[in-house]
Amino acid sequence: MKLVTVAGPPSCGKTSVILRLAQELSKDDLKLGVIKFDCLSSEDELRYDKAGIPVKLGLAGGLCPDHFFVANIEEGVRWGQRNGFDLLICESAGLCNRCSPHIRDVLAVCVVDNLSGVHTPAKIGPMLKTADVVVITKGDVVSQAEREVFAFRVKQVNPRGAVLPVNGLTGQGSLMLHRHLRTAPDTHALEGVRLRFSMPAALCSYCLGETRIGPDCQIGNIKTMDFS
């Protein structure tokens, strides 16, 4: 089974891109499954259900979504294997821009959209920087010049990754994405496999539920600013 991580900011079009990709996969009679990781709520599983795609939804709730993802992805792979998927896509939304859900030796896709602004690629961090493929959506609502500038900024952050414009509404460009996914290596297990980027160092009183403000309430890994 091939495993692919698809990550990107909320509302950039990840689910629409995956649904268009599913149409291309169905032409090859490939069985697709999706695990959707989100923070507090999601209705994307309804869209997958409507398209006839098996889906599991995981909500991090009060936990760090990145830690929630890594704590569940291995069992998610076993779920995909039990169901006989040819391709399992793990869609992650709303994760910390300091972090990345991408895994070594697993094809990594980052989705960003033209409407987010030309400075956004530099803000997204390792989720974009470590991706093998960067999908840029919503190109139909900006000018050619804006599309070129945005793609240039993406290449500045990730010169190694393939940059693909994909229209989540019409499916234009999804065939190229399909070809990249066909090159993804098979994944049999994730035990011992490493993430591409370490998670943020954070173990402080606020991680453990503290809500009061003040130095006496701050213990653990604390970073302060210089206001002098």
pLDDT average, as an integer? 90
The number of domains is: 1
Helix content: 25-40%
Helical/strand content category: alpha/beta
Q: Overview of this structure, please?
A:
It is a single chain. The chain has one domain (2-217): P-loop containing nucleotide triphosphate hydrolases (Rossmann fold), CATH 3.40.50. It has helices at residues 14-27, 44-50, 65-82, 120-124, 126-129, 144-157, 174-182, and strands at 2-8, 32-38, 55-59, 87-93, 107-113, 133-137, 162-165. It is of the alpha/beta class and 228 residues long. The protein is globular, with a radius of gyration of 18 Å. It has a seven-stranded parallel sheet with strand order 3-2-4-1-5-6-7, with helices on both faces. α2 links the parallel β2 and β3 (55-59). The chain is built from seven helices and seven strands, in the order βαβαβαββααβαβα. InterPro entries: CobW/HypB/UreG_nucleotide-bd, Hyd_mat_HypB, P-loop_NTPase. One of its GO terms (molecular function) is zinc ion binding. This is GTPase, putative. Residues 4-163 form the CobW/HypB/UreG nucleotide-binding domain. One of its GO terms (biological process) is protein maturation.
